[in-house]
Structure formats: C-alpha cells, structure tokens
Model the fold of this input.
Amino acid sequence: MTRQELKQKKIAVLMGGLSAEREVSLRTGKAVLAALQGAGYQAVGLDAGRDIALRLIEEQVEVAFIALHGRYGEDGTIQGLLEMMQIPYTGSGVLASSLAMDKETTKKILLYHELPTPAFQVYRKGDVLGDFLKKCRHFPLVVKPAREGSTIGISIVRDEQGLAAGLQDALQHDDHVLVEDFIQGMEITVGVLAGEALPIIQIAPKGGFYDYHAKYTAGQTEYILPAPLDSALYHRVQQVARDVYRVLGCSGAARIDFMVREKEFYCLEANTIPGMTETSLLPKAAQQAGLDFAELTQRILEDAGLGK
Ligand SMILES: Nc1ncnc2c1ncn2[C@@H]1O[C@H](COP(=O)(O)OP(=O)(O)O)[C@@H](O)[C@H]1O
Ligand SMILES: [Mg+2]
Done:
C-alpha cells in the first residue's frame, strides 16, 4: 500500500500483550504510535490482550502495525489471527514468525542451508540429565530456552554443576532448552529491511554479558556503528544476514544476531519484530543508512500485507 492509501486507513499499533517482554513492547509501541501520528496517520494504540479480536472489530482497524515482542506477538499467533480477520499487518507472516521464534527450529534451518550457527544440543523436559551431561563436554556453554527473548532464562555455564542449574532455570521458561557452544568474541547485529542489510552494529556490554539490564538500560552498553570488521568480513556478514532472512521467509524488518570470532561468525537468532525503543538497535542502524525513525516506521508500514 502507498503512504497516501495508508493515510486513509484506520491503523492500530498493537503493543503490550501477554509475553514476558510486555514492558519493552509498550515502549516500542508508544514510539511507533507517536511517529505515525506525527506523520499524519490515523493511528491508535491497542493493548493486545485476550480481547484483541473484539478490540480490532470495535475500533474498525484496517491495518495492524505489530509492535509486540515474544510469545503471542512475534511467534505467528497474532499474525494468524490477523490473517483470519483479513487485516493486513506489518512484518513477517505466520510461518516465518513462528520459525524465528523457536531458536531450535531456526538453527536446524540454518544448518540445512549451510549457514553458520554455534554447535548445539537440545535438552527436552524429562530427558535423563546424566545422559545429557555426557553429551556436553566442551565448556563454557550457553544455556537458553528455545523460545524466549530479551536474554530471559539464559546462562553461561562453566561446568556440569552450572549446566544442571542453567537447565533448571531455562526449563522455567520452556520445555525445550538449547545448550550451545559459547563463542568468545564480538557480538554484532544486522538489521534487514525488506531484504536489504542495514549497517552492522557492534554491541559491547560494559558488564561483558548482553543481558536484560544491559539491553534496556541507557548507558549500560556501548554500540559501535558501523562495527569495526574488515570490509570483506563486513560484507560476508551482511550477505549471510540477508540469507538468514530469506531462508526463514521473513518480511518487513528483522534483526539478525551474530557472534564473531576472528574470521568466523555464527548466527545466534533472528528477531522478526526488532525493538523500536529509544535505545533500540534497528533505529540506530537505519539512522546510519539515512532513514530517520519516522521514515523507518513508514517503510515497515508500507510493507503491511496478508498471506506472506
Ligand atoms: N553461543 C553464544 N556465545 C556467546 N554469547 C552468546 C551465545 N548465545 C547467546 N549469547 C549471549 O546472550 C545474548 C542473548 O542470546 P540470544 O540467543 O540472542 O537470545 P535472546 O536475545 O532471544 O534472548 C546474546 O546477545 C549474547 O550476548
Ligand atoms: Mg538476541
């Protein structure tokens, strides 16, 4: 849809919702709503609770801008509801959203396409712990719930005891837990907008670990843009970021996270609804590419559709 057409439509920014990332989503949603209203769109904010279908009908919403993170927002469920209601929405479709939400499935698809990702094992609730521990020999390891975000339930473990504790913790969040090789190196993220890679950002958390606090507290993390990689490596990473976006079938904006160790790099995950708060990375990368926040928001909105 063109911007002119979209300005005639009732737009809802879906925010908040039911996931552990609710607070972050409210911040993203408010920033997006302000940008759309400021640019002359008829936009309202809707909290995506259990009554969201009713609210969409009551508000006569014609286009949905999804500013939700985590479960029931980034995982294909709200996308499925909007498909059924025939309300065009921003970002990835049902399948890409649910694939990207699940790190285990994402990594299996990356392996199939020979795209680099850290080696991993999956612990499923009920698996015999002793057998599993025997498979994990090379510490340190990273333990994370298969479907969560914002570094929730993630730990870096250095021995069997730590691994057992890390599994317990991650199992609070999901029945499937990934145990991944720890990649010591530079953390970077690559925004992809409509299939094109944005400038790469290096993430340098002051405390060494990019956890919830480092992610969402101003001043806790240094962001270096563009990331200091030599030009051949920089372009290879951007190419792989585009490939990850493509093989998962993403649409609109996404952000692909990587760890770089010397000349090798490994994809950690794809985020199909990147944060758009004051401290978020996608807006910083877009800015570097010459797109301000209002422009970025409108590019994402223009891509709204059904059946992706
Ligand atoms: N294999 C790994 N090696 C090193 N650091 C990791 C690894 N996996 C995760 N991390 C660290 O944990 C953070 C969160 O992990 P990630 O897989 O991106 O999950 P999410 O962002 O969904 O919580 C990363 O940003 C990175 O700092
Ligand atoms: Mg991440």
